[in-house]
Amino acid sequence: MPSRDRTPAAPSRTELEAARSRVVGDVLGPSLRVLFCGINPGLYSAATGHHFARPGNRFWPALHRSGFTPRLLTPAEQGLLPSYGLGITNVVPRATAQAAELSAEELRAGGERLVRLVAEIRPQVLAVAGVTAYRHAFGAPKAVIGPQESRVGETAVWVLPNPSGLNAHWTLDRIAAEMRRLRESLS
Q1: pLDDT digit string (tens) for 87-144?
Q2: Closest Cα partner for 52 from 183, 160, 185, 174?
Q3: What are phi and psi of 73, to 5 degrees?
Q4: Please, where are the H alpha helices in 30-103?
Q5: Nearest partner of 76 among 47, 119, 100, 39, judged by Cα
Q6: What's the pTM?
Q7: Closest to 13 (Cα-Cα) out of 54, 56, 44
Q8: Which of 175, 153, 177 is nearest to 164 (CA)?
């Protein structure tokens, strides 16, 4: 008899290693209010094909608690985001075990790619989840969490805390509060 457990099995160590350098496709749609942007996919995300998929990542719970979604979505439901006016991309598309494996050149090139993507799809806000990645990608060494003075064309820019479980000094409640601040700023 098949299992009724709807939780997919975690990728094996072999599957995780095989996911190194894979790309997780962007989740885009027309008329996006917010394009969320991670640093780059981790191996777990690349193995599953879903953004922010590693258990312990606080993106999905914070997104819901902030009021962006009416219920808690799973990473496998990322395709629903455009129906809420939301999308996801990454600064650097290739998967690594840690963001520290990315070079400064990759981050700068990722910033240039984001400028082109934002010019094409024109979201109301580009929300980068990770202040250090934002600083490198956009040459903004003094950037802090929150709205940025600079824009990408007509698009406002907001820096959010990295939702990774490794970013322990930002609790789920604080990440959700910052996302809520962003949501409430939208016109």
Answers
A1: 999 999 999 999 899 999 999 999 999 999 999 999 999 999 999 999 999 999 999 9
A2: 160
A3: -90, 150
A4: 43-48, 59-65
A5: 47
A6: 0.93
A7: 44
A8: 175
